[in-house]
């Protein structure tokens, strides 16, 4: 029986890391056929054409773009919770029957804080970083797009630095002093809802949600075009992690879902530091860790890896050991 015990790169890095080279390859093939070139650079230039003032584009462009990603993707997940449709997607729920139906009172009570973080705090922090960033952020022209090879290196290194920042900030918020005063808010949802991903105390939103994105962007001096790509990756990953759905071809939410269900394990986003610090031991023993993978099938992880899988594999292992002894 195929039971994996360790993390594979597909569980660690976001699937977008693998889809970008595929998209790049398809684009190159199509460019060859149509005798054109630099398709994505042209697309980026069209976006910059909307307003090519450096400061305005970096500030307002980033605020508008990241908000659009958050609300469009978040509302898509949320519409599945509200309508309970499509029916065929119900099997992808990480915690079956949870949020069925949604607790609208809880959502309405949480919404003002989500709106504050998204519509007020995000623009303020972005404004501070773009303004002081004239010195710390990349000085590359807003029209600059990096090479494909550099883009891939940047995406991988960004995720590793993000993991370190997020893991330690998040773990600190689980110290009993900070937990009671700050992080408890975010854990009100034991079965998370995508749109409520940034339902967090404003201090946590700055230190655990925004800084882990800003720090690698500043350290790596990423140009604005690459910054938007990594911000898309993290936003989609965060919304997926809190969606309650383990959909095919997308990043597995099992790790963070376990964190919300159990509180005291799985603090990181990728799982590397949890493995290193031994803070995912119970998760690793559970069926959830076997299910923690990007699935390339329309079957759900429960269908692929049923609840009694661990039990069955233990029996199989015992039987084969007995045969060896005989
Ligand atoms: Zn937590
Ligand atoms: Zn969370």
From TrEMBL:
<dbReference type="GO" id="GO:0016491">
    <property type="term" value="F:oxidoreductase activity"/>
</dbReference>
<keyword id="KW-1133">Transmembrane helix</keyword>
<feature type="domain" description="Fatty acid hydroxylase">
    <location>
        <begin position="156"/>
        <end position="279"/>
    </location>
</feature>
<dbReference type="Pfam" id="PF04116">
    <property type="entry name" value="FA_hydroxylase"/>
</dbReference>
<feature type="transmembrane region" description="Helical">
    <location>
        <begin position="59"/>
        <end position="80"/>
    </location>
</feature>
<feature type="transmembrane region" description="Helical">
    <location>
        <begin position="12"/>
        <end position="30"/>
    </location>
</feature>
<keyword id="KW-0472">Membrane</keyword>
<feature type="transmembrane region" description="Helical">
    <location>
        <begin position="151"/>
        <end position="169"/>
    </location>
</feature>
<dbReference type="InterPro" id="IPR050307">
    <property type="entry name" value="Sterol_Desaturase_Related"/>
</dbReference>
<feature type="transmembrane region" description="Helical">
    <location>
        <begin position="107"/>
        <end position="131"/>
    </location>
</feature>
<protein>
    <recommendedName>
        <fullName>Fatty acid hydroxylase domain-containing protein</fullName>
    </recommendedName>
</protein>
<dbReference type="InterPro" id="IPR006694">
    <property type="entry name" value="Fatty_acid_hydroxylase"/>
</dbReference>
<dbReference type="GO" id="GO:0016020">
    <property type="term" value="C:membrane"/>
</dbReference>
<dbReference type="GO" id="GO:0005506">
    <property type="term" value="F:iron ion binding"/>
</dbReference>
<keyword id="KW-0812">Transmembrane</keyword>
<dbReference type="GO" id="GO:0008610">
    <property type="term" value="P:lipid biosynthetic process"/>
</dbReference>
């Amino acid at each position: 029986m195929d039971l994996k015990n360790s993390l594979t790169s597909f569980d660690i890095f976001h699937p977008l890391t693998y889809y970008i080279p595929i998209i790049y390859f398809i684009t190159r093939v199509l460019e060859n056929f149509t005798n054109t070139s630099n398709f994505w650079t042209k697309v980026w230039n069209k976006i910059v054409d909307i307003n090519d003032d450096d400061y305005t584009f970096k500030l307002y462009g980033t605020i508008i773009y990241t908000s659009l990603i958050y609300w469009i993707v978040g509302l898509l997940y949320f519409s599945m919770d509200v309508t309970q449709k499509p029916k065929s997607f119900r099997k992808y729920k990480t915690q079956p029957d949870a949020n069925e139906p949604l607790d609208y009172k809880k959502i309405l009570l949480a919404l003002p804080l989500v709106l504050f973080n998204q519509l007020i705090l995000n623009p303020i922090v972005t404004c501070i970083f773009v303004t002081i960033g004239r010195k710390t952020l990349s000085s590359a022209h807003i029209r600059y797009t990096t090479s494909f090879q550099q883009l891939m290196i940047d995406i991988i290194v960004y995720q590793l630095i993000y993991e370190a920042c997020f893991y330690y900030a998040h773990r600190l918020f689980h110290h009993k002093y900070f937990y009671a005063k700050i992080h408890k808010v975010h854990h009100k949802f034991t079965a998370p809802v995508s749109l409520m991903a940034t339902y967090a105390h404003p201090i946590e939103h700055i230190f655990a949600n925004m800084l882990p994105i800003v720090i690698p962007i500043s350290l790596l001096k990423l140009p604005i075009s690459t910054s938007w790509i990594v911000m898309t990756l993290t936003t989609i990953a965060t919304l997926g992690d809190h969606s309650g759905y383990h959909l095919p071809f997308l990043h597995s939410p099992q790790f963070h879902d376990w964190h919300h269900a159990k509180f005291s394990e799985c603090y990181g986003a990728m799982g590397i530091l949890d493995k290193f610090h031994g803070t995912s031991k119970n998760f690793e023993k559970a069926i959830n860790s076997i299910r923690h993978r990007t699935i390339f099938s329309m079957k759900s992880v429960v269908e692929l890896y049923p609840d009694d899988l661990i039990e069955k594999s233990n029996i199989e292992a015992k039987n084969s050991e007995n045969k060896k002894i005989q």
